[in-house]
């Protein structure tokens, strides 16, 4: 059967990185039918950008696989409380922590909170990101450029720096990059540049930590239906979002989260420095 094109109703949010409650339809994040098998039993995971979208879907599946979860988010308190509810419904605790991941002190405090509760971090997920479309590089201000880099790549450096002293052999780090790192995006120059930096960071960090027995990998999603989309694009682009990939639809957060389960579990024990590509069928190099 041919893949059917799927569209979202036109919609837009004025605040970034967006809120989940107003989205229509709601993203799918709990992956009905997915049965946990203890792949992450008793692991401690800290997820940035965990209040909604891909981060929430990761948190839910990690809990289903037996992990204790902490999420760091900017200011979307209602969304974060819902993530905590969903994680607790899976029988696991969920620590919610707010703050700007682009500030090193925020990252340090988030790690300290998790260590205070659980004593260690086994899995670090660097997922928080933002984007600001512009039609020309001439429209990208210095303030926007710094903001995008601070959230998307500085935050990953800060989180790793803070968490690493508390990560033992067998721990792992998974970074969220993007299909734009491989195929580019003319309206997301600064965003795609940060995502390319994340690929290089992942590969370099994997080599730097190999002797410590800590694996580092990444996931490069394609167009995924998250709050970032209606808070970033206008109504017309939201309506057609995801229609330009071979599968002709946007993906759902819970179609991406299993990649993060795989990379955090022993199933991927011989993988480091690699990138997985849940992107609706777009073929990319690397």
From TrEMBL:
InterPro entries: NAD(P)-bd_dom_sf, Sc_DH/Rdtase_CS, SDR_fam. Keywords: Oxidoreductase. It is an enzyme of class 1 (oxidoreductase). SUPFAM superfamilies: NAD(P)-binding Rossmann-fold domains (SSF51735). Residues 1-12 have a biased composition (Polar residues). Residues 1-39 are annotated as: Disordered. Its EC number is 1.1.1.-. GO terms for molecular function: oxidoreductase activity, acting on CH-OH group of donors. It comes from the Bacteria. It holds the Pfam family adh_short_C2. The keyword Protein biosynthesis does not apply. The keyword Heme does not apply. PANTHER family: NADPH-DEPENDENT ALDEHYDE REDUCTASE 1, CHLOROPLASTIC, NADPH-DEPENDENT ALDEHYDE REDUCTASE-LIKE PROTEIN, CHLOROPLASTIC-RELATED. Belongs to the short-chain dehydrogenases/reductases (SDR) family. NCBIfam families: PRK06701.1 (NF005214). This is Short-chain dehydrogenase/reductase. It comes from Azospirillum lipoferum (strain 4B).
């Amino acid at each position: 059967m041919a893949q059917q094109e799927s569209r979202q109703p036109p919609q837009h949010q004025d605040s970034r990185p967006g809120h989940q409650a107003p989205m229509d339809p709601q993203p799918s994040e709990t992956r009905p039918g997915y049965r946990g098998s203890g792949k992450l039993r008793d692991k401690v995971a800290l997820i940035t950008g965990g209040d909604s979208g891909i981060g929430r879907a990761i948190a839910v599946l990690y809990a289903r696989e037996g992990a204790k979860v902490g999420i760091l988010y900017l200011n979307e308190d209602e969304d974060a409380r819902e993530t905590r509810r969903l994680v607790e419904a899976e029988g696991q605790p969920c620590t919610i922590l707010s703050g700007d991941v682009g500030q090193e002190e925020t990252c340090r405090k988030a790690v300290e909170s998790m260590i205070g509760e659980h004593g260690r971090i086994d899995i670090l997920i660097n997922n928080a990101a933002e984007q600001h479309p512009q039609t020309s590089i001439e429209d990208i201000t210095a303030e926007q450029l710094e903001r995008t880099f601070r959230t998307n790549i500085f935050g990953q450096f800060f989180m790793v720096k803070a968490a690493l002293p508390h990560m033992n052999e067998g721990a792992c780090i998974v970074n969220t990059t993007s299909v734009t790192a491989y195929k580019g995006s003319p309206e997301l120059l600064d965003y795609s540049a940060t995502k390319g930096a994340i690929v290089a960071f992942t590969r370099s960090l994997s080599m730097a930590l190999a002797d410590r027995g800590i694996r580092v990998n990444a996931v490069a999603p394609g167009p995924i239906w998250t709050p970032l989309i209606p808070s970033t694009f206008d109504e017309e682009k939201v309506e057609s979002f995801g229609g330009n990939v071979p599968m002709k639809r946007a993906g759902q957060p819970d179609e991406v989260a299993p990649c993060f389960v795989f990379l955090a579990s022993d199933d991927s024990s011989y993988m480091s420095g690699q990138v997985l590509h849940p992107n609706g069928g777009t073929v990319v190099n690397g």
